[in-house]
Amino acid sequence: MSNDKFHRIILPLSNQFYRLALSIVKEQTEAEDIVQDVLLKLWNKRNEWDTIENLEAYCFRSIKNLALDRLVSDAIKKTDSIDAEIESRTFVDTHSPYQEIVQQEQRSIIYQCIEKLTENQKLVFQLREIEGMNYKEISQSLGITEDLVKVSLFRARRKMRELLSNFENFDKNEW
Amino acid sequence: MNGEYIHTLLNKYWGCQTSPSEEKELQDFFLGENVPNDLKCYIPLFRYRDEQQSLSLSPGFEEKIRKQIKKSPQYITIRIFAPLLRIAASVALIVALGISLFLISKQDASKPYLTETYNDSEAAMHQAAFAFEKLSRAFEISESVYIKTFQEIDKLNLDWPGMDSINIEKPAPRKKIDL
Which residues of B touch A39 (CB under 8 A)? Predict the structure, then answer.
């Protein structure tokens, strides 16, 4: 693979790598560090690119592994709620204070639901729901079988449906 | 959008039978204003999708990576990827190993490290006798020289006891001169 492909194909995927890392470490700076580390390591190993079957999937796997390693090594203290900084970045539109409160509540509900998923279900959910990948791409990116991807996604959605349906504090009329 | 169609699409979604484009359709619907009350509980899910999809790295990130890539040195590594080269390297290794084993096995273990230089014992004896004669002659010459030297010294009639009693005065230590 030519160096040009790195600039044309890999670098434009940086945001996807970042979102995957962020979904695991839940800390913006740490997620950026992980993406940077993986991209620089990949660049330094450019003599081996020809031996890697799917470079994009390889990057996703590296991001996932590094992010999980960082969590395990206690470099980051994983918290139940997402970083406040991320929350502030996600909503930049001009809602009324009431709408803002409603959306804040919706966000809190969904994060609680996501935390109830297994690690595998979270990763599959992230790559399918957020990145819109198909099953084959997800299986290559996570290094798991397509069948496991399907099962994980099915269980994740089913759990999500149950949790959302059973949420008692919903005030449906106000949404 | 037709309510029945949305319910069908949503059921397909829960059953993991929707395509990414159909899921995007659902997302757009749930982000809109006309969500029926019975489906409002699913709004957080599709709003979360929308929020997460808009997350991105800080603005200067890509430029920072490009700069670091330019700075990083080019490491040249030699690797044997070609199958033919691998085979050639394996064959060379096996041949070298074989030659080494052959040479080691050919060595006679009973052979001493120091070996005789003569096969004929008589010739060896003759050479040894010649060497001893030479050595004997050298001793004779050195003995005669020794005797001759002592005879010459005796002729000098030196007073050895007197020479032994000679006291050599040590020089007096120098006085310090204060300037």
Answer: 65
Q: Provide the token pair at A138.
A: 């997800």
Q: Which of A155, A19, A22, A164 is nearest to A105 (CA)?
A: A164
Chain centroid offset of residue B57 CA: 42
Rounded CA gap, A139 and A53, in Å? 14
User: Does the distance separating the beta carbons of B56 and A15 come in below 8 Å?
Assistant: yes
- Cα distance between residue A86 and residue B123, in whole Å: 102
Do residues B80 and B88 touch, judged by C-beta distance below 8 A?
no
Please give the Cα distance from B50 to A47 (Å, whole number). Answer: 38
When computed from its CA atoms, the radius of gyration of chain A, rounded to whole angstroms, is 18
pLDDT tens string B116-137: 667 788 888 898 899 999 999 9
Cα separation, B136 vs B109, whole angstroms: 39
**Distance of CA A78 to CAs A23, A30, A74, A113, B131, Å?**
11, 12, 8, 16, 93
Contacts of B47 in chain A (CB under 8 A): 103, 106-107, 110
Q: How close is the nearest chain B Cα to the Cα of A106, in Å?
A: 5
Answer whether B42 sits within 8 Å of A130, measured CB to CB.
no
Question: What are the pLDDT digits (tens) for A112-143?
Answer: 888 899 988 999 999 999 998 999 999 999 99
Report domain extents, chain B. Answer: 3-53, 120-157
* Torsion-angle region of A16 (φ positive above 0: left; ψ -120 to 50: alpha; else: beta): alpha
Provide, as residue numbers in chain B, all residues whose Cβ is less than 8 Å from the Cβ of A32: 57-58, 61
How many Å apart are CA A172 and CA B44, to the nearest integer? 12
What mean pLDDT is predicted for residues B33-55?
88
Q: Kindly report the nearest CA distance between residue A5 and chain B, in angstroms.
A: 13
CA pair distance B177, B179, nearest whole angstrom: 6
Confidence of residue B106 (pLDDT cuts 50, 70, 90): confident
Specify whether the CB–CB gap between B139 and B148 falls below 8 A: no
- Compute the half-sphere exposure of residue B12: CA atoms within 13 Å on the CB side of its CA: 15
CA angle A112, A146, B42 (to 5 degrees): 30
